[in-house]
């Protein structure tokens, strides 16, 4: 995937191809259409706020767009485990603090064989709980490793691959799948984790609730310095208003670090 093409050869921007693919990933991940693109815009604005070197912004850009490459790899397992729609499960889990035992337990109770007779739900609940934390870790590990593998097959940068692999790690070490902590988590992965979660809460509840969530998880889920940097964007009403709009193609092109073209 060269950045320039021979004279006279026609190509398309790589970002346009991957942005289109990201909409399919949004669907598989149970998110609103455009989730990955909006996450990308948030993440690139955050990169600007922290002064991320230009050399690293390309790797971040494609990691943000392609962060959910592995989301289909655990869909069947997730659905079979809960006896429920994997789309509904993935949508629901994005709105809770699953590193807290009580919230995680409520999620399991709420989603274990929904609509089935009480006895069936109880048996399903016991089956899920019997797998313990390692059961959840296995599901996330499958997703993250598969996503990293696909990113490598697409010849994306090594920093992009590492960011996708560590997508669900948390600053306090309570994330998945390898319990990385603090600065052991790649910086780009920390940006991914914050950006995608802010996008989910922004799209669902609005900017105020998105910031409340980020502040509540500062130092647990998220790198405190990144949350502080995000606060500098809070008063940019034009940014958030545009992010709520339907078309982000021009804005995505504007933040793409370097034009990459693919031959047609």
Report on the architecture of this protein.
By secondary structure, this protein is mostly helical. It has a two-stranded antiparallel ribbon. Helices cover 62% and strands 2% of the residues. It starts with 10 loop residues before the first strand and ends with a strand. It has helices at residues 14-28, 35-50, 54-65, 75-82, 86-93, 101-111, 118-153, 158-165, 187-205, 207-216, 224-231, 237-243, 249-255, and strands at 11-13, 261-263. It contains 13 helices and two strands, in the order βαααααααααααααβ. The longest helix is centred in the middle third of the chain and has 36 residues, at 118-153. Helix 2 packs across helix 9 (187-205), helix 3 packs across helix 8 (158-165) and helix 7 runs antiparallel to helix 8.
Radius of gyration: 19 Å
Task: Give the strand line-up of the largest sheet.
Answer: 1-2
Q: What does the average pLDDT come to?
A: 86
Q: Give the helix level as a range of percent.
A: 55-70%
SSE ordering: EHHHHHHHHHHHHHE
Which stretches are low in confidence, meaning pLDDT under 50 for 5 or more residues running?
Answer: 4-10
Please state the overall shape, judged from the principal axes of the Cα atoms: globular
**SS content category:** mainly alpha
Largest sheet: 2 strands, antiparallel
**Between the first and last Cα atoms, what is the distance in angstroms?**
12 Å
Number of strands: 2
**Percent range for β-strand residues:** under 5%
**Number of helices, where a helix is a run of at least 4 consecutive DSSP H or I residues:** 13
